[in-house]
Give the backbone structure.
Amino acid sequence: MAPVQAQVLLSPAELSYLHSSLSLNPPIRPDGRSPTQFRPLVAESDILPGANGSARVCFADGTEAIVGVKAEVEKSQWRPTPQKESADVEMDDEQEEEPGVGENSWVEMSIEIPGFRDDDPLPVFLSAMLTEALLASGDLKDRLYINRRFHWKLYVDILLISPPLAYPLPLLSLTTHLALLSARLPALKSERDEDPLFDDDWEASTPIYPRSGRQKPYSAYLDKPPVTLLVMAVGQNIIFDPSKEELAVAEAVMAISCAASQSQTAEAVRLLSIRTIDPPSRLTPPGIPNLLNSATGGVAPVSSTDAMAQREAMSLLGVWTPPRGGIKRNLVGRVLKMVVEKGGVAEEVLEALEKIEVES
Amino acid sequence: MPLDTSTYALALLRLDGRRWNELRRIHAQISTQAAADGSSYLEMGNTQVICTVTGPAEGRNTGAGRSGGKEGEANLEVEIGFAGFSGVDRKRRGKGDKRTAEMAHTLSTAFSSLILMHLYPHSTISIHINILSQDGSILAACINAATLALVDAGVPMTDYLVACTAASSPTTSTSAGSDDVSDPLLDLNAMEEQELPFLTLATVGGGEKITVLVMETRVRVERIEGMLAVGIEGCKRVKDILDGVVRGFGV
Amino acid sequence: MPRAAEISVNEREFILQGLKENIRLDGRPFDAFRSLELNFGDEHGVADVQLGKTRVIARVSAEVTAPFVDRKFDGIFNISTEFSPMASPAFEIGRPTEAENILSRILEKAIRRSGALDTESLCIIAGLKCFSLRADLHVLDHDGGLIDASCIAVIAALQHFRRPDVAVEGENATIFSIREREPIPLSILHHPICVTFSYYNAGGIMLVDANLAEEQVREGEVVITMNRHGEVCQIAKYGGVSVDALALLNCTSVALEKVKDITKFIQRRLEEDAKKRDVGGLIAELSAENAR
């Protein structure tokens, strides 16, 4: 629960206007998007010659991020019985041959945001959120296994080039997704537990996320890195990819990470993690209704508790009251359904990202 | 020295196939980022740099009135960051790294004398540079990228500041039989930088006058003249390229 | 954070006007250093340099440690600088100013990177033991020309320093104290000296060894490090006024002259100091006679 940074300076009247237009049915967003529409973006991948994979994404609001993925060979720590750990039974029970089991520490992520120190809550929280989604999505870490003595260590460095104008999570997540899609590892030439030796030919390298058959329409995005979506709710409306102004009136904000499901039968999207994010709207000062304002003929409350009680009693339209309390359970359910369902938002996003990768 | 000098002496071609006075491919863009007041992206061979400029704006007030630099003048802040993935090995360079601090100091003093700082009293102009890929001539690439971003931001300057590197190769061209002691080379990549003594120089508007000159390796004093001459010539060409980028953007 | 007092407009004009009339505030010619003094401490490896009113002390010390894993055959050599608030109110302990960063970078490039000290000779047993040499630099009084003075101090201190003798037998190294065996001097390959040139009047006037007031009004500077063999170890011109390439080349020849003088001066002082120490050598120390 890290608070969203970068407070927007809006007056109670502006907040109230935004809030009521967003709670209409259908909601009217300040930039005219539909509730599930994302902001336009420019993206390119595989831009750096020195990194295993890289991507750059610019949002239309001017925020820009660059992600570089670098893999280095590292000596594995000796483990007592590396193959038969009970913790990772999921996928390597049936095959006895080569199932390398990865460890969480093989993926390292760092986020740099201008104006923030590395140990500030925002970068730390963001990297925790993105790492957890990355590790939860299937067998990425297992693919970093080389042999019993060596493994790849994957460094994901995320640079936010612009100041964090909006909450940078969607931008960083999309960029990371693209960079990981383009990341390739050199082909292994040595066998078994020898010291690893790699093919010099970059053409022979294998992508970390192998592109499975392109023929089937949906399997194209199977087994792809996760994306983390930012979703907010105002009243009964669920709004995707909120801008900074919209976040300022959010009643609930959630970060939802998902990836394409691996089972061939149900081609749906799998949920990896959810985090609630403290919306900045809680910190805004409330508007004062005319009834409580002595300047407009009202009666000013005597104490702050009194003011609270009186404001609680009335629900005036057009007066900004910061949201209180948590998220309703059925709202969470609806959000998840919208994201994960077949033809839902996540599928749409993953498909769109796949297209970028194809074109570049 | 591991650098294969024998082929250079024979064919007069460098490791990457260039001749002695050839620049690498310079590709640059300006206005790459909408959120910044000025921004640029510059490639010199495999060296890639992104630069954004904010300001002139009200400075962050850090204590006792240090927001506005000297009285009646703007303050220039430079921040340089090496991305973890920029080098051959993945390495994170902390903020306190002295080499990075030295580069930032170079940029801020060099541009302070070029920007018309007196027009913006009590303001701050900040330059942020991200080095995405390192392959030699990094300081030069930073200077060139900063020039472009400042132009894009519309900060008034007297002229472009352009930079390049020049080295002195020990391979005497024996065939020519001239009394030259060394062969100068222009625009080094990372491998050449490790092997040869080199200097980075920046000139104003590609002229003859040198604003920045940084050399970190030991070299005979007689060789400097040749390196300077080649460097100045290189800067002239860099100026034309950058000018083309700016004019191309304006069309 | 304290700030250095800025020079007043009147002073600035006065100094610049003087320079235009070929007069320096302290009457020196444009290409002259201030009076240089060099003293050595009782211990080996302590050098006290006074350049005009600027005073810098360098102290070299050694200890035995394990070498870096990636440099098994090299000893360790570090230069650390400390600007004490005693020297100037602008200095603060624990918060290096930009000037301090630049000074330590230039010393690093001038002395360490140029290979002035043969670090391989500091190795005792490859990969296991080596000498770790440390030069601590203290600025006691700041009146300009810090880089030049500091470089002289470190170079003189290194030349003056004697490290303990060692004997290696297989895996065992014995380090002898000063009393057991005569300590040995370091192997120094060349003696880099820094000379700072300051520019005024749009690059038209060039001064050697500016003092603090002159430093504050200068438009640009270039620090050239050379040794007396005519090798340039480092050049640093971090911006400032633009200067003609020929003028810079001219600087190198002026610098070479200065470097030769200073190196000779250090050598003379070292010899004088050695003579003073070597009253009777070990014999004098072993004698039972006491000065009463």
